Amino acid sequence: MKQITKYVIKNSLKRIFLYRACLARLKMMGVEKVFSYTLANDTGVTPDQVRKDFSEFGIRGNKRGGYEISDLLEKMENIFHRNKDHNIVLIGMGNLGLALSKYSKFVQRNMNIVATFDIDPFKQKIRSDIPVYSMSRLKEIIDRFRIKVAILAVPEISAQQVSDELVRAGIKGIVNFAPVLLKVPPEVVINNVNLCDELESVIYYVHKLMQDEGLKNLEILYKDMKY
Length: 227
Hints:
Elements: E1 3-4, H1 11-28, E2 33-34, H2 36-43, H3 47-56, E3 67-68, H4 69-79, E4 86-91, H5 95-101, H6 105-108, E5 111-117, H7 121-125, E6 132-133, H8 138-144, E7 149-152, H9 156-168, E8 173-176, E9 183-184, E10 189-192, H10 195-226
């Protein structure tokens, strides 16, 4: 039965990414140990939240002696299975898909886009480092490279249909850039990345900040007028 996936990317996992970035920066600066309050300061959470997140992912440390940064980074690498190569397919070679296919950070993190797919015959003829196949070869390529994860960068109107094809071909996780909530079997993981929503979230907070500053300025002006 298809449904909105039961696997929601947890906020605690998102915070692990923030901790990892902070730890990597500290290591580059030559720091060897870190305390939970340092990570809390740098990531905008409480020390208790840091320790709780670490505990959820089986990371232990010494409260008095702090955490060894190298050890923390190694444990985080294990969380994300960085010791393995991960083959990925990308569906949709429009402007967004093309940009994603050239993103060098994927390779640096052992994530290899081994094939892309598009319904446009012209794009299938273009020679590049990553081949562009027709959708008719989807199952063949997924089986050949034992792929379990796909990136979906197709128009909203075709996203559900393509998602169904990916699931039938054996894909277990999809990063979805189409602005639509996909319905999949319960055992399939979906991470929806809506760029418009992300921008609108920032716009909302920018305007809220400006409004708050305006009210604050009015209060100051009112006090000045009183005296």
